[in-house]
């Protein structure tokens, strides 16, 4: 009986190793696919807080742009956005898109509270279908993607990132 | 001479059977709590956190993080005994499976005691780690701290050259793990009067299987959150 139990336990452990190992392989493959997909700005749509649909190819103009995926309840996201808001040089150099999958009403309240509506270079967008989240493989917030004027990804920052660091990248 | 050694081993067998597992466990917990105090008070002070995060975090977030740590400093201390108990029990279960499948009669309690005694290997490793860290306090960051764990595969490559999800597994694969397996095998062989090599053949595959499960689990979780 003891031997049978030990054998079942051993099979369980080996099964768990196999399952986790396969999941790791699967996740690595998925990460690689995402990495290749976002190396150049992918095609996607997001909704402005005025209700207009915005295409990603409109992002690529003659200036670099920053796409920050955030959540209004996240303290680190708020700190990063406040840092971006107070960095005038960054706003002169790049267009900043703050995007979230929360309802438009919540995002409007957030925009008003942080007084972002008066800033020309910072736009709050809604990812209503979580398409952008999926496309960029966002698992945690804030998640910031810095693109150059040609639409090439310069760097992806996971977690809060100071505006100074973003500025160093876009001013090159 | 041989007679003396045999006598010593016989006494060791008796003393392992007699010793109270909970007393040894309490001593091990006490030592690990002491390590935690040293780490919190003298190694990973505020300066290390500021050095590690000041480049990326804003001042307000950094202060919030340090404030959080000051409020919940006791958290790690409370969970130390529980985590240690889980770790030791897991190793004991793995080795027990090995002994049952090899038809070796052993009480779970005795294997647990042996695993507990073998923990001295990791206590030595942790002591060396702390000594090593204390020599690098001026430049230490949370990211580079893993580099100073002695005799690991990670310290050979360096954290900066290894992807995040592989860092913990490569830090865990070290010579102390090998020593741990050797010590457990040796202590068990003294108990059941078998050949050391035979004991190794039971302990090595069973412990290694458990360790692999733990490492793939941590790698899986790291990938999930990153």
* Biggest sheet features of chain B: none
Oligomer: heterodimer
Q: For this structure, what is the CATH homologous superfamily of the largest domain in chain A?
A: Glutaredoxin
Report the count of strand segments of chain B. 0
Which strand-content bin applies to the residues of chain A?
15-25%
Which second-level CATH architecture of the largest domain in chain A applies?
A: 3-Layer(aba) Sandwich
Q: Which value, in Å, is the CA radius of gyration of chain B?
A: 20 Å
Kindly state the percentage of residues in helix of chain B.
over 70%
Q: Which fold name fills CATH's third level, the topology of the largest domain in chain A? A: Glutaredoxin
Tell me the total number of β-strands of chain A. 7
Determine the structural class of chain B based on helices, strands and strand pairing: mainly alpha
- List unreliable stretches of 5+ residues of chain A: none
Mean pLDDT of chain B, rounded to whole units?
Answer: 90
Strand proportion of chain B, as a percent range, falls in: under 5%
């Amino acid at each position: 009986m003891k031997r049978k139990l030990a054998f079942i336990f051993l099979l369980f452990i080996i099964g768990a190793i196999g399952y986790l190992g396969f999941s790791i392989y699967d996740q690595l493959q998925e990460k690689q696919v995402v990495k290749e997909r976002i190396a150049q700005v992918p095609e996607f749509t997001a909704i402005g807080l005025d209700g207009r649909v915005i295409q990603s190819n409109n992002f690529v103009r003659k200036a670099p742009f920053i796409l920050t995926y955030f959540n209004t309840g996240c303290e680190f996201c708020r700190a990063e956005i406040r840092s971006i808001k107070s960095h005038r040089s960054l706003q002169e150099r790049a267009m900043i898109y703050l995007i979230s999958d929360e309802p438009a009403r919540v995002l409007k309240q957030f925009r008003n509270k942080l007084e972002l509506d008066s800033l020309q270079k910072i736009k709050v967008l809604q990812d209503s279908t979580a398409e952008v989240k999926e496309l960029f493989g966002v698992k945690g917030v804030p998640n910031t993607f810095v693109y150059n004027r040609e639409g090439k990804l310069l760097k992806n920052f996971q977690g809060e990132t100071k505006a100074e660091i973003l500025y160093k990248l876009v001013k090159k | 001479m041989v007679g003396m050694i045999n006598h010593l081993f016989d006494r060791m067998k008796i003393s392992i059977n007699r010793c109270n597992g909970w007393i040894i466990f309490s001593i091990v917990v006490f030592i690990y709590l002491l390590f935690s105090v040293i780490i919190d008070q003298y190694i990973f002070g505020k300066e290390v956190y500021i050095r590690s995060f000041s480049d990326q975090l804003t001042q307000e977030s950094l202060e919030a993080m340090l404030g959080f740590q000051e409020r919940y400093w006791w958290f790690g201390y409370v969970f130390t005994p529980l985590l240690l108990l889980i770790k030791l029990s897991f190793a004991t279960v793995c080795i027990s499976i090995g002994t049952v499948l090899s038809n070796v009669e052993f009480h779970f309690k005795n294997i647990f005691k042996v695993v507990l005694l073998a923990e001295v290997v990791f206590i030595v490793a942790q002591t060396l780690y702390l000594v090593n860290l204390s020599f690098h306090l001026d430049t230490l960051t949370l990211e580079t701290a893993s580099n100073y764990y002695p005799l690991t595969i990670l310290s050979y490559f360096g954290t900066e050259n290894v992807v995040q999800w592989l860092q913990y597994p490569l830090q865990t694969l070290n010579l102390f793990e090998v020593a741990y397996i050797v010590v457990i095998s040796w202590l068990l062989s003294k108990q059941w009067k078998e050949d050391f090599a035979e004991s190794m053949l039971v302990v090595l595959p069973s412990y290694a299987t458990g360790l692999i499960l733990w490492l793939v689990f941590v790698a899986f979780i790291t990938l999930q959150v990153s």
